[in-house]
Amino acid sequence: MASGAIPTSKTRFRKDSRAAFRPRRPGQPLWRSKWANRSILPRGRGRLALYLFVFVVVVLLVPVPGLGSLRQLLLGILLFPFSASSRSRPGREVLKYIDPLIGTANGGHVFPGASMPYGMAKPVADSDDRRENAAGYVQDVSLIRGFSQLHDSGTGGSPSLGNFPLFVHPGCPLDDITMCSFSARSRAVMRWPYSASAKPGYFSLRLKNSVAAEMTASEHASLYRFSFPDEDDSENGQDISVEYSPLILVDLQDQDNSRHNGGVHVDPKTGRITGDGDFRPSFGTGVYEAYFCADFQGAKIRRSGVFMGDNPHEDRQSIEKDPEGKFNVPSGSAGGWIQFEPPTNGHILARVGMSFMSREQACENAEREIPKLDFDKTVEKVQDAWADKMSVIEVNEADIDPALLVTFWSGLYRTMLSPQDYTGENQLWESKEPYFDSFYCIWDSFRAQHPLLSIIDPVAQTRMVRALIDIYRFLGKLPDCRMSFSKGFTQGGSNADVVIGDAYLKGISDGVDWATAYEAVVSDAEVEPKSWNTEGRGNLVSYHQLGYIPSDDIDHNGTGRNTRSISRTVEYAYDDFAIAQLAKGLGNEADYRKYMQRSTNWKNLWNPHQADSYIQGPEEVRWSKFKGFLQPRLLDGSFAHHDTRLCSPVHEMHKCYLDTRWATYEGSPWLYSFYVPQDMAALVETMGGKKAFVERLQYFHESGIVYMGNEQSFLPVFQFHYGGRPGLSSYWAHQYIPSLFNTTYGGIPGNDDCAMGAFSGLAMMGFFPVAGQDVYLLTAPFFSEVKVRARNGGWAVIRILNFDPTYHAKYIQHATLNGKPYTKSWIKHDFFVQGGVLEYVVGIGESTWGTKEEDFPPSWPWPPVVEDASKSL
Ligand SMILES: *[C@@H]1O[C@H](CO)[C@@H](O)[C@H](O)[C@H]1NC(C)=O
Ligand SMILES: *[C@@H]1O[C@H](CO)[C@@H](O)[C@H](O)[C@H]1NC(C)=O
């Protein structure tokens, strides 16, 4: 960074900026510095703070008799953010370990702004960095275009949402509004580097135009506090000709410039600005409408008007599509603005209510949720909501590197940013069921996020499952990917089948209509939609007839991208397994047999002769010792060839997407050849037995073929369990955390997808779900004790009796469950329902624990293996 960027001004405002300028060291526990300079003290409070400080010092240090209890109270308040024992608000103390800025660089695409758990309103500053700004803010030095109200978190694809940004000018040159810039492109301004500060429910940033912006949120509304430098300090600004008279504009635009239609209205008396627009989703097809309602407080209105492009109009207070269709609001930047007198308190508050139904509902949402524009109270409320969510987990912090605690809690926090609760805001159909949006995408989230939520937030998970079923009810198919009331692109299988099957096995059933749920998953399996790019499955006729998707298939029933024949085959097979489990649970034995039979379809693409080559040097090909991989297969039954390493980090990683011609999606045949969660015992056999399997899985992790930045790699970290080496699962979990999951801005190996944090959270707690099964693979937790609130009110406790904070001893030697020896390397969900105590002794080497075949996690062979009576003798 350029040293010239360090400000030299005398104002307090800019000094603060300089203090916040210090970049953090990689791995530095951030919460310390962030909490130290998190607030931008409004003017006039400084003196009061000083008096208070002196008072506190006197009470604490001067031994005046009779002040004992007051002293204790003050100590309690002072130490509150750092104390592990504040009892009034359970769980709130962990918020200091949550750093929302993790994953805001290097492709993490994490949303670091303010949000309620699963909240709809998600205000943050939007960066002008198209490669990285999928979630709005990027931790770099790109320009800031404004502060918009809706976002998704952690997605790939194009920039998502980002509707109705506010932008704030401290004033216009020569006090002439036409000299201010209005459009997104021309108004974008630099920030003070590293001035961003974030914690749950709060985000702030300082702009180089001297404006400091803080923001918080309720369920459906953003609340901003914009602060300005002292009026008489304006001569220290960059442009002395700017007259201090703040101008705030609301742009109808979204991040991806997708708006058409819409309109805006400014009330010059009250300052209320309302508006709407039609937008396109970021990774799908369709259109959605969004509405806002903005109110301001803290300064007198001087003038107001609308703008189109860079042209403000003071004589016009609205631009609306006229009913005869002769005038449409032009696409691009357009909106309303208000110019204020200098604010009496140094800041202006702005509340922006949001709705997907109407402008009126946007106003009602804002008035109901933030009636008084009380910034601090709103922050408290959203922090209480997060504290409540986090209170279901407790870990022993003793001896733990704070950075690991930050990795852990921040990851759990991110898993509750999306899907977003749009109940009451469904613009597509009327229903009494909950409506969630931003399942973005289930291909990413079914593996770790939803199973985690089934444990730590079963109520939300139940509502999400009900929302999925309701989407089926009204649209005819379950989604795989869904955002902004639109169908998103399907990446793999129909993985909502696994979410629903998993929920069934885990008792996520409150108000769930299982008959319709079953109808929905069977529809995925049996009825091909006309366009299967955005729902259901493709190539179903061949899949049913041949038991695999031929790479040269001709599909007469529907259209879709005829690619990914390997990855779709193995995903369909596992989805069918999930359907079979549900069929069995619902008492449908015939369907159970049918779908179990289909769950073996992975075998049909297994080419036992396929060797694995790698390039050693120019023109020189070498072969690894591994043979037998999933390969593409033609209609005539013969195998085609697909490089076993193609689309892994070691060979042309970025070749396998939806529209490329390859047989795998975002991964290699090496990776997909491990995807047989339904029958790992058969896979182990197919790969040549336990020893060969373990060797191969080791090689997968050691050789760099694995890519931990994508969710398909989560389960293979723990699949050593199926080879009788659960210690190696523990080993690899420690290899990846914290080296790839850590507290830096780029501390996630890929798009977060609200899933990466579920991986680190689960791995650190020591139980990893096999999604779609009642199975958690056990490894030693990263803490001496983990407590998870059990469904029946008690606790599921996992404890290491001889905990080693250096993690040399990370291999389970011996375990007891509720006092009795426990030799299985896995546990059932019942542990998290009933509660109980799982205790470990760990050691520095692998042990015999979990190595006997009878202690392996279960496999579901088909046809079922009949017990050999002679064997049991
Ligand atoms: C494919 O189309 C045929 C003819 O319309 C229909 O009978 C069949 O059920 C369809 N198959 C699937 C799997 O959708
Ligand atoms: C943190 O994680 C990122 C992303 O996985 C990785 O590139 C980086 O090397 C890690 N940093 C440290 C200090 O471990």
TrEMBL record:
The keyword Transmembrane is assigned to this record: yes
Domain Glycosyl hydrolase family: 361-843
InterPro entries found in the cross-reference section: 6-hairpin_glycosidase_sf (IPR008928), GH-type_carb-bd (IPR014718), GH92_N (IPR041371), Glyco_hydro_92 (IPR012939), PNGase (IPR050883)
Example of a GO biological process term: glycoprotein catabolic process
Compositionally biased region (Polar residues): 1-10
Record domain Glycosyl hydrolase family 92 N-terminal: where: 97-355
Record bears the keyword Iron-sulfur: no
Chain ranges passing through the membrane: 48-68
Alphabetized Gene3D superfamilies for the sequence: 2.70.98.10, alpha-1,2-mannosidase, alpha-1,2-mannosidases domains, GH92 mannosidase domain
GO CC terms, sorted: cytosol; nucleus
Spans annotated as Disordered: 1-25
A molecular-function term among this protein's GO annotations: carbohydrate binding
Keywords (A to Z) from UniProt: Hydrolase, Membrane, Transmembrane, Transmembrane helix
Record's protein name: Glycoside hydrolase family 92 protein
Phylogenetic placement of the source organism: Eukaryota, Fungi, Dikarya, Ascomycota, Pezizomycotina
